[in-house]
Automatic annotation (TrEMBL):
The keyword Signal applies. It holds the Pfam family Peripla_BP_6. InterPro entries: BCAA_transport, Leu-bd, Peripla_BP_I. Residues 28-393 form the Leucine-binding protein domain. This is Branched-chain amino acid ABC transporter substrate-binding protein. PANTHER family: ABC TRANSPORTER SUBSTRATE-BINDING PROTEIN, LEUCINE-SPECIFIC-BINDING PROTEIN. It comes from Piscinibacter terrae. Keywords: Signal. Belongs to the leucine-binding protein family. The lineage of its organism: Bacteria, Pseudomonadati, Pseudomonadota, Betaproteobacteria, Burkholderiales. Residues 1-24 form the signal peptide.
Length: 423
């Protein structure tokens, strides 16, 4: 009897410990997030971290924001109020570090899903690791078109990709000529030589002649470079009317300083987001950032069409004293989409989360993005996203295209550098 009693006590203790562990697990949903928290892109990485933390806080504790999913707080109702726990990893802008950190998050931190990673080259390697371990990977910002052309089952991307964005740029130029009477001369491309920049270059090289434009020069410069003098001199010698540029924050700022220093002043710089929409771009350059046009996915002036944009941005600004950007707004949205899938899955099993992601159908009225919604195709690409173009005027990003959504007219051409001194 004594032996039986001891066995019963031990068995009960083990069961209690098991149930306590299971209960603890259901109270916390561990999501890995991989971003550049140090290195050249640390400034934008910090903003993305803020966006993620605010999204998690809204889910866990609530916020007075109408129409936003989970704004009531209290965790995920589908998991009996389980709270989101973000587990951060720093990829430093290095693809190999991104892959290593993804594996660490999966094998050591036991995350049930991953969100990341801003830099397309890092998203490529980190998501390969997630696919190997069959862990859902949601990418809110990376735009290299090939990321959703790999046949992966566990990879999902909410942002539109560069194929759409580059087409948007040429659609804008066509409408600018037809509706505004602007003449577009020779085009040059000036892109970083990573995955994102090289893929964008190929798309631009293909579309420019198809759309009837002369491609005067294509320049790929070293990513993370500390000087662009020779490249800008080559660009200036080609004398393009328009420069299409893809740069991360440090080189976006460096290029503008070099343009001014060498007196290179095309009619327009049409940028491909990233560094040109980082808060540091205008903060560092001041008036020298003026008139650049960049593709975007979000703009504060669209709040007159969607009040949710204003409400969520005010919450972000009250916490961090900065406004959302196209980068941080997408990251915020990405975590919300992942939380929606986990909530509907009513499970932290990766396969259940993957299945729920394939069934995602979020409508426009529940997003802070100017999209038609979020719905993934068989490749994991959101088919309801779209892009806009904004122009920096008076230190703000103003929507200028599509023209029916514009908050102001396009200023074209950009004033020459020596014409800005009195401004």
């Amino acid at each position: 009897m004594r032996r039986t009693f001891v066995k019963a006590i031990i068995g009960a203790s083990i069961a209690m410990a098991f149930h306590a562990t299971a209960s603890a697990q259901t109270q916390e949903v561990r999501i890995g997030v991989i971003y550049p928290l140090t290195g050249p892109s640390a400034s934008v990485g910090g903003e993305l971290k803020n966006a993620l933390e605010m999204a998690a806080d809204i889910i866990n504790n609530g916020a007075k924001v109408r129409d936003l999913p989970f704004a009531a707080g209290g965790g995920l109702p589908g998991l009996k109020g389980a709270k989101i726990k973000l587990v951060f990893a720093d990829h430093q802008g290095n693809p190999q570090v991104g892959a290593t950190e993804a594996e660490r998050l999966i094998t050591q931190e036991k995350v049930v899903a991953i969100v990341g990673s801003y830099n397309s080259a890092v998203t490529l390697t980190a998501s390969q690791m997630a696919e190997r371990y069959k862990i859902p990977f949601l990418n809110p910002e990376s735009s290299s078109a090939s990321l959703t052309q790999r046949g992966f089952k566990y990879f999902f991307r909410t942002t539109p990709h560069d194929d759409l964005f580059v087409h948007n740029a040429f659609d804008f130029l066509k409408e600018l000529q037809e509706k505004k009477g602007v003449k577009i001369g020779p085009i040059a491309t000036f892109n970083e030589n990573g995955l994102w920049g090289t893929e964008t270059t190929k798309l631009q090289a293909k579309l420019a002649p198809e759309k009837g434009y002369t491609l005067a020069k294509q320049i790929l410069y070293p990513a993370k470079t500390t000087q662009l003098t020779s490249e800008v001199q080559t660009l200036k010698a080609a004398n393009p009317s328009l420069v299409m540029q893809s740069s991360y924050t440090p080189d976006a700022i460096l290029s503008m300083k070099t343009y001014k220093e060498l007196g290179f002043s095309p009619d327009m710089i049409l940028a491909n987001n990233a560094g040109f929409t980082d808060t540091e771009f205008i903060k560092t350059l001041g008036k020298d950032a003026e008139y650049v046009i960049t593709r975007e996915v979000w703009a504060l002036d669209l709040a007159n069409r969607n009040p949710l944009i204003k409400e969520v941005n005010e919450l972000f600004n009250s916490r961090y004293k900065i406004n959302f950007t196209g980068n941080s707004s997408r990251t915020f949205t990405g975590l919300m989409v992942m939380a929606d899938a986990i909530n509907r899955a009513k499970s932290t099993e990766p396969e259940a989360i993957r299945k729920a992601l394939t069934e995602t159908n979020i409508t426009a009225d529940h997003l802070i993005m100017p999209w038609k919604g979020v719905k993934f195709d068989e490749n994991g690409q959101n088919v309801l996203g779209r892009g806009i173009l904004v122009q920096i005027v008076d230190g703000k990003y103003n929507t200028v295209w599509p023209f029916n959504m514009a908050s102001r007219e396009v200023t074209w051409p950009m004033p020459k550098w020596d014409q800005r001194k009195s401004q």
